[in-house]
Structures are given as structure tokens and as C-alpha cells.
Amino acid sequence: MYSEKVMDHFSNPRNVGEIENADGVGQVGNAKCGDIMKMYLKIENDMIVDVKFKTFGCGAAVATSSMATEMVLGKTVEEALQITNKAVAEALDGLPPAKMHCSNLAEEALRAAIQDYYKKNGIPFDGEPVCSGCCHDCSVVHE
Amino acid sequence: MDKVIYLDHAATTSVRQEVVQEMLPYFTEKYGNASSIYAIGRESKKAIEDAREKVAKALKCGPKEVFFTGSGTESDNWAIKGMAFANREKGNHIITTAVEHHAVLHTCQYLEKEGFEVTYLPVDEHGVISLEQLEKAITDKTILISVMFANNEIGTIQPIKEIGRIAREKGIYFHTDAVQAVGHVPIDVNEYNIDMLSLSAHKFHGPKGVGVLYVRKGIKIHTLLQGGAHERGKRAGTENIPGIVGAGKAIEMATKDIEDKVSKIQALRDRLITEVLEKIPYCRLNGHPTQRLPGNVNFSFEFIEGESLLLMLDMKGVAASSGSACTSGALDPSHVLLAIGLPHEIAHGSLRLTFGDDNTEQDVDYVMEVLPPIVERLREMSPLYEEVKRGVKHV
Ligand SMILES: Cc1ncc(COP(=O)(O)O)c(C=O)c1O
């Protein structure tokens, strides 16, 4: 059901953990829906120098969190904001259709962490609102 | 990965070597159509009737009350729809439970669209229905009570004998989905006042795609499949003779020395339950502590999600299942776990391990070796556990 890349990121997830005094922290999803992602960012000179995550969820949720952290490390905040759920899924050689929701959660967790960073630093943010990550609450169909 | 510990016997089982051997000639040499009059046709006919005798002996009923079908699902559909459509003038009310297999639940939901009324009895925290509520639910329009013998997820065994007594007293027919029970607990359709019973051969080391519906003599139900005069005109379609032969052999083997088998499997079950509850914190047993299938274990581990748990167990060679939403592709976790009152987040962290008589004490040792570190590892990754450890969240 899952690609080799997904299984690799699931069984050896990169960047699991927490960052003390993180510059941005974002959490999306809820336990009722079965998945929660929490992303921690360390940002220096607008550059993401460290990233960690914690995830409660299925194999795809863990793998997409792991992949998303790999993709943003070393990127500027602006570049990180360009990362889409589709790009995360593609980097994992695809996800089963029922699991596209999980890659969306990764994108939203990242966005939420960056929003938190902007807020802490008084930088105005005009991006889209972060979705709650709970499919019960919305009807957006993900590719 | 060389070693696989199979702990998903509720999903399906291997076909016994002896069963395969009995089936084989019916693919190649004895391939006759049982409706044909020449020798190999008659031989096929006899093979079906022998298998029917074996099923009848196992259920303690007459062979004429046994009908072969294509699956447990078909048997459930036939029993419920067949009864509903045959008794439309008498009434339109069916009583079942909230924890049935989808083969029963979705059939009842279909009948609701066809104008029938269905009562889905709730269950208590252990998954047992209330006899009082059952009696109260009965109206003069009630034509059928369908309550599963034992639950496929949490293993809870219903008070079948008492349900049968109530149904008989009120003159209402009683169907039980015994797909998980046949071959695993002793069953006597007369002692329990069961009027119709569904079973499926692949749950007791028989082949997949063979079911049985037992229908008590004298009960009239509509047929679902129109066609030839197979199964005494009740279920058309050229018989799956190798499968039927296999089902007969498998039920004979499964019901022989059933008490010994039950006590052996039950010992494995109880040891695993005790050790897991002792060694793993934030964990609960789902289902009834004693009134449960001898091979069924079902836990919920807080702060982790079931599919992740299954994937990690699979990497260690343990085959199991879960009621989490992610494993079913649905948004909600298992309806059974919700019906026993589990909050969604705890239902997502469920793990079902089901033993068969090929499992050993070493298998329990192995699960106890690999399961606790996997649970711990997933919890270390979980933001929910982080909150608990920091004391933010109280459990
Ligand atoms: C309780 C119960 N009923 C019905 C079925 C369906 O049986 P089958 O797989 O033969 O269609 C199953 C098996 O999954 C079951 O566990």
C-alpha cells in the first residue's frame, strides 16, 4: 500500500523531537480525527536552521511529517511557505488517495509554525488561514 | 523477515492440509456437476450431502436445515432480507444491535430504505446487549431478532440462550451471525433456540468463499438468487463442490475436541491480557473480561494510532489488526469501539490480536518482547504523550 520511501520515513523518521525555545511552533489536527502534527522551527536570519516534529497518526502522517522537515531544513521561511502538500507527497513517491489528507496536515503544520514565528516577531502575515486539519470540519477535496 | 507470527485469526485462517487434501480431487478428477446424472455427477452430489451431514452434526441440527452459500456475508444477507421480505404482511420491524458486522448492519440499513424499521440495540461498556432493552424493543410488528453470537472485533459473546428464549416466548424468529463463533465455542441450535445461523468456513481453517445458512425446519424465507434448483431450490448456482467439501472437513475438525482447543487458546489469551495490562501503562482491554471468544484480545493504547502500531508490528513479523479509522479508510474509528463508549482518540489506538490453535506460548513471549518497545517508541513520537509527561494533560 505504501511506497518504499514512505516506509523508510515511517520506520526511520528524520527530525523527531522537540526544540526548546523554538522560534515557531505549530500544531494541527486533533485526536478525535486520529492525527495531530506538531512542528518546531529554529529560525536564524530568516533561515530554518533546525526543525523537529512530533506526530500522532498513521504511517502516512509520520512519513509526511518526516519528509516535510527534511524539505524545509536550510530553506528560507519564504521558500518553506512555497512547499505544498503535493510536493511532500511527490517526494515520498506518492501516497494512497485516502492518505492525501495526511500530506495536507504536514503542509498546514509547517504553515502554522511559520505563522507562529511571524506573530512572535510582529511580522504581518497575509497567508491563507491554517486549516484545523480535521476532515470532519471541512469539505476540501485534496488531490 | 523470516518468522511471521499470525495473530489475525478473526480475519481469516489458513486452510488445513487435511482439508486441502479432501478438496483436491474435486478440482481435477471428480469435477462433475452435481446436477448431472452420470457417475461423476452423482459423486459430486454425494460429496455435497456428506459435507451437509458434517455441518449438521456440528450445529446439532438436521441436514435438510443446512444451506451452502458463497460467504458469511451472503448468509447474513439471505437470512435478514429473506425473512423480511417473506413476512412483510406480518410486520416490518427488525431488532438487531449496534455492534453487528457490516454484513448485518448494512443489510438492515438497506431494508430501512425499503420501508422496514430497525432497532439497533445499544451495548454496555463490555459490548453486551441488555435483555431488558431487547424485551422492551419488541412490538407486535417485530418479525426478526438478529444478534451476533460473538463480536469480530472485541470478542464479546452475547447471551444467546437467553435471547433465544425471549424470541421463542414472543414467537419471533431469531437469527444469529455466528461467523466468529462456529468452531471456536460449542453451539447447539436447539438448546439455544436459534432459528437461523450464519457461518463462514474460512474462519475455522476451511476455504474462503463458502458460507452456510442454517434455517430451522418449517421456516419460510425468500430466496435471493433465482435460477436453477440447487440447494433444494433455495439458492441457485452450480455448487462450489471443492469448497463445500472443504467446509465440511474443516467444521468436523474444528468442532472435534473443541473443549481442549478452547482451553489451550484461552490460556494464551489470558496470559497476553495479564502481561500487557501489567507492563504497558495507559492501556485498556476492550470487550468483556470473561464472556469473550477464547482467542480474542483487543486493547486500546492511549496517545498512539493503530495503523502505525500495525505497521511496526508487521516489521517485526507480527500480523494483527486495528479498529482505527486509518486502517479502514474511513473518517471514524470502528463502530464497535464507539458503541462500547470509547472516545474517538482511544478507539484510534486499538489493537486486535486473535489466536488460533497453531499459536504457542513462544508467540506470546515474542509479542511481549516486541510490543512494549513499539508502544513506547510511538508514544515518544506523539505530541499527546508529551503533554501527559509534562503534566499538562490529565488522564
Ligand atoms: C461476524 C462476522 N460476520 C460476517 C462476516 C463475513 O463473512 P465472509 O467473510 O465469509 O463474507 C465476518 C467476517 O469477516 C464476521 O466476522
Outline of this structure?
The complex is a heterodimer of chains A (143) and B (395). Chain A has 143 residues and is an alpha+beta fold.
Mean pLDDT figure of chain A: 88
What structural class should be given to the helix and strand makeup of chain B?
A: alpha/beta
% residues in beta strands of chain A: 15-25%
Secondary-structure element order of chain A, as H and E?
HEEEHHHH
Largest pleated sheet of chain A: 3 strands, antiparallel
Distance between the termini of chain B: 38 Å
CATH architecture of chain A: Alpha-Beta Complex
Compounds present?
A: pyridoxal-5'-phosphate
| Gyration radius over CA of chain A | 14 Å
- What kind of oligomer do you see? heterodimer
Give me the secondary-structure topology.
The complex is a heterodimer of chains A (143) and B (395).
Chain A: H1 4-11, E1 24-30, E2 35-44, E3 47-56, H2 59-72, H3 77-81, H4 85-91, H5 100-120
Antiparallel strand pairs in A: 1-2, 2-3
Chain B: E1 5-6, H1 17-23, H2 25-28, H3 39-59, E2 66-69, H4 72-86, E3 93-97, H5 102-113, E4 117-121, H6 131-137, E5 142-146, H7 160-170, E6 173-177, E7 196-200, E8 211-215, H8 230-233, H9 241-255, H10 258-279, E9 283-285, E10 296-301, H11 306-315, E11 318-319, H12 325-328, H13 335-339, H14 344-347, E12 350-354, H15 361-381, H16 383-390
Parallel strand pairs in B: 1-11, 3-4, 3-5, 5-6, 6-7
Antiparallel strand pairs in B: 2-8, 7-8, 9-10, 10-12
Helix pairs in contact in B: 1-9, 3-9, 4-5, 10-15, 11-15
The complex binds pyridoxal-5'-phosphate.
Residues 71-73, 76, 101, 103, 148, 152, 177, 179-180, 200, 211 of chain B line the site of pyridoxal-5'-phosphate.
